[in-house]
TrEMBL record, chain A:
This is ABC transporter permease. Pfam families: BPD_transp_2 (PF02653). The chain crosses the membrane at residues 93-116, 122-141, 162-184, 215-235, 247-265, 271-290, 297-313. Residues 1-30 form the signal peptide. It is a multi-pass membrane protein. CDD domains: TM_PBP1_transp_AraH_like. It comes from the Bacteria. It is found in: Cell membrane.
UniProtKB/TrEMBL annotation, chain B:
It comes from the Bacteria. Keywords: ATP-binding, Nucleotide-binding, Repeat, Sugar transport, Transport. Pfam families: ABC_tran. SMART domains: AAA (SM00382). This is ATP-binding cassette domain-containing protein. GO terms for molecular function: ATP binding; ATP hydrolysis activity.
Length: 318, 488
């Protein structure tokens, strides 16, 4: 592949690798390399899973962004953990019930989001943001401050490294990413999302069932949020009301850093991984410098802006 | 009335407000205006008529200073530019800002409305103009334009054109000013135009309502292909003479399609489609939608296509396929390759278990590249690497590559060279012979001649249905323009 440097995700990977090396060099003598990689893969997985859903939504063009991801994560995690906490019986059945309920809650949220957008003609950003208050309230109402521990099986799975020393969560995210890659690049559905993102009117006139494609996309995004919330709650030993907060901007940032076009129509999966790893590594790098929280946030913001500016500058020259 | 030149004793009638001397305007290879000499004197009302693309708008844009002439001169007597000369234009499509009030819209064009008390002065000006032109109107000068009806918006636009200002209006250009006015309001406007001219103002009046032209114009100018081809006092034209002057008279050399021949031989097969507007088509028929641009043809086609397809169900066998004329707005997927653009409408025939069969897609791309002659070394190249004509061929192929029985075409030959046109005409006739039905909106006469049946649109409704030999430029023009409106 002589053209690899022209791929939209190329610079995101360069940045991620550079951030890895920079952080690694700060830790004592390179011994921390494995630990750093494991941490990056684990925490990056959550960003990847929310980012994949957000990427599909963003591909549908300007105005399409799902801001209900954090609330959906919280709601799905709270309710599924509550369900599992109240169940007795075989561990397998409990896990299955929890997983299915988290996915179903995600699907329900997706349908609700799309219904608001379509039936009430509310712009997607407003619709998903306002709906997220509803979901968050539902989560608060059902949670009532009690902290339910996830089943031990799930806690072990989400923190484990069963295969090749790579975190189980990273494997899950990798398999899902492959599915998204097929969906985006090989399927008729992915083609249609891209068509809508480029020109919704022309897509409709070419026979694309725009409402169905759009509804499916919002549902997939919300299901991914539900799944991520479920796994994150199991990983961190329980659901918390603010557990999804950082994934609002994170899901958008990894999409954009990964080289997907914010104007719609043009997205890629490898970039999501680069973006997710980069975002984690940059924060740990700034941590290792011992900077305060304010400076850290400021630097993160500046770095994101610089990367997005560099990426759009590259496109303008093409 | 004879138009005299120079400043002689005839007073207001002879002072030219604006003068065009051999004025030409070209857009690339297209000559929109070709050596036009025209003088408009104070006190006269000039009726300007001609078919779409005859050059009327270009002429107006030269006079109002929007374009500079490519050749020749536009001269304003005693003034350096159109603003000083007191030239105002009221365009056909609204130019009001909907989020501003009536008086704020006046201040957009009248730049002297600034400083303390400008709102009061603006309100006075617009109110007195409205009162004079449309007595009995109920428009408040502090209403938002968006809250007004279409007719009221048009009245405001006209009033702004005639309103008092720093420099009084000396020539007002009215382009289809009555298109959304009812008969009584239109009559008020026509009366005002006559009054305005009697007081020494000049008007250029563009309308497809022949009655209005004859009612108000003192002189009529006919344009065709960028030239003035007839210019006479209004009294010397007859209505039929005017229509004849607008059109070319050429022999039809187009062979009727097999569907038309079969019908001529007595095949009375039923229409396979009927739209609410009254468009009908039989299997294998090429049906044209004619008339002046913007009279509801494109909307009728879009409504028909949308009613045949769904927001929710993709279809492997769609009932209809759409060919966009406005490629950028309605057709192209700009970041995709030629091949992906071509196969978009037929995507459902290419997928198995939801996944695209790329080998099959490549085969379809190659087949249509050959059949319709898309000039590119590689169908994987970006669509934007093609010329406009070849992009249009891709959009044709997109529709034809489906199994749709009806192909809807929204003036698809805009900006397409003659070679491509001929190739596509052949393709359309070939496909029609195989049983496909075409709905074809076109503003060009030689395209309409390819049709078996033509519906002429005027003001959003069908004003005539022509078939076979009756499809002629004269008949289409006659149906495009309105003759017998009640000038109440």
């Amino acid at each position: 592949m002589t053209m690899i440097h022209k791929a939209p995700w190329f610079w995101a990977w360069v940045a991620a690798i550079a951030a890895f090396c920079a952080t690694w060099s700060l830790s004592a003598g390179g011994a921390g390399g494995t630990a750093l990689a494991v941490a990056a893969l684990t925490f990056g997985s959550f960003s990847v899973m929310t980012g994949l859903g957000q990427m599909l939504v963003i591909t549908m063009g300007p105005g399409n962004t799902d801001l209900s991801i954090p609330a959906t994560m919280t709601l799905a995690a709270t309710l599924s953990l509550k369900l599992m906490g109240g169940m007795t019986g075989s561990a397998g059945l409990i896990v299955l019930a929890g997983l299915v309920s988290a996915l179903a809650i995600g699907a329900g949220v997706g349908v609700a989001n799309f219904a608001l957008i379509r039936l009430l003609r509310i712009p997607p950003i407003i619709a998903t943001l306002s709906a997220s208050f509803l979901y968050q309230s539902l989560a608060i109402w059902s949670n009532r401050g009690l902290r339910i521990k996830p089943p031990q099986v799930l806690a072990d799975f989400t923190t484990g490294r069963a295969l090749l020393g790579i975190p189980n969560l990273a494997w899950v995210a990798l398999i899902i990413s492959f599915g998204f890659w097929v969906l985006l690049n090989q399927s008729g559905f992915g083609r249609r999302i891209s068509a809508i993102g480029q020109n919704p009117r022309a897509a409709r006139l070419a026979g694309v069932p725009t409402a169905r494609v759009s509804a499916t996309t919002y549902v997939i995004c919300a299901i991914m949020a539900g799944l991520t919330g479920f796994l994150l709650a199991c990983f961190s030993g329980g659901a918390a009301l603010n557990m999804g907060a950082e994934f609002l901007l994170m899901s958008i940032a990894v999409t954009v850093i990964g080289g997907s076009s914010i104007a719609g129509g043009n997205s890629n999966v490898p970039g999501i991984w680069a973006g997710a790893l980069f975002m984690y590594l940059i924060v740990s790098m700034l941590n290792s410098y011992g900077l305060g929280a304010g400076v850290r946030l400021l630097s993160t913001g500046i770095i994101i802006i610089a990367i997005v500016a560099a990426a759009s500058g590259r496109k303008a020259r093409l | 009335m004879v138009v005299r030149t120079g400043d002689d004793q005839t007073g207001a009638q002879a002072v030219p407000v604006v003068e065009l001397l051999g004025a030409s305007k070209s857009f690339g290879a297209l000559k929109a205006l070709d050596h036009v000499d025209l003088r408009i004197a104070a006190g006269e009302c000039l009726g300007l008529v001609g078919h779409n693309g005859a050059g009327k708008s270009t002429l107006v844009n030269l006079i109002t200073g929007l374009f500079a002439p490519t050749e020749g001169q536009v001269r304003y007597a005693g003034a350096a530019n159109h603003l000083e000369a007191g030239i105002r234009a009221i365009s056909q499509e609204g130019t009001l800002c909907p989020n501003l009030t009536v008086l704020e819209n006046l201040s957009v064009v009248q730049r002297d409305l600034t400083g303390l008390g400008w709102r009061r002065r603006a309100a006075d000006r617009i109110r007195s103009a409205l009162d004079v032109i449309f007595p009995g109107h109920r428009i408040r000068s502090d209403s938002l334009v968006i809250d007004l009806t279409l007719a009221e918006q048009q009245m405001v636009e006209i009033a702004i054109g005639f309103a008092d200002g720093l420099r009084p209006a000396r020539l007002v250009v009215l382009d289809e000013p009555t298109s959304s006015l009812d008969a009584s309001i239109a009559a008020q406007l026509l009366a005002h135009i006559r009054r305005f001219c009697a007081e020494g103002g000049a008007v250029i009046f563009i309308s497809h309502m022949m009655g209005e032209i004859f009612d108000t114009a003192s002189r009529i100018v006919v344009m065709r292909d960028g030239r003035l081809i007839a210019e006479r006092p209004a009294g010397q034209f007859t209505r039929q003479g005017l229509v004849d002057a607008m059109g070319h008279v050429t022999e039809s050399d187009v062979q009727p399609s097999p569907a038309a021949l079969a019908r001529a031989l007595g095949d009375k097969s039923q229409a396979i489609l009927r739209t609410p507007e009254g468009i009908e088509a039989r299997k294998g028929e090429i049906v044209g939608l004619a008339g002046l641009a913007g009279h509801g043809q494109a909307e009728a086609l879009a409504r028909f296509y949308l009613s045949q397809s769904s927001d929710w169900h993709g279809a492997a066998r769609p009932a209809a396929a759409f060919v966009a004329g406005d490629r950028k707005r309605d057709g192209l997927m700009p970041i995709w390759s030629i091949r992906r653009n071509l196969t978009l409408a037929a995507l459902d025939t290419l997928t198995r278990w939801g996944l695209i069969d790329t080998a099959k897609e490549a085969a379809i791309g190659a087949e249509w590249q050959r059949r319709i002659g898309i000039r590119t070394p590689d169908m994987g190249n970006p669509i934007l690497s093609l010329s406009g004509g070849n992009q249009q061929k891709v959009l044709f192929a997109r529709a034809l590559a489906t199994t749709a029985g009806v192909i809807v075409m929204d003036d698809p030959m805009r900006g397409v060279d003659i070679g491509t046109k001929t190739e596509v005409y052949d393709m359309i006739r070939h496909e029609a012979a195989r049983g496909r039905t075409f709905l074809w909106y076109s503003t060009e006469m030689d395209e309409i001649r390819n049709c078996d049946r033509v519906f002429v649109f005027r003001n959003g409704t069908i004003s005539a249905e022509l078939e076979g030999d009756r499809i002629s430029e004269e008949n289409i023009l006659a149906a495009s323009f309105q003759f017998d409106e009640d000038a109440a």
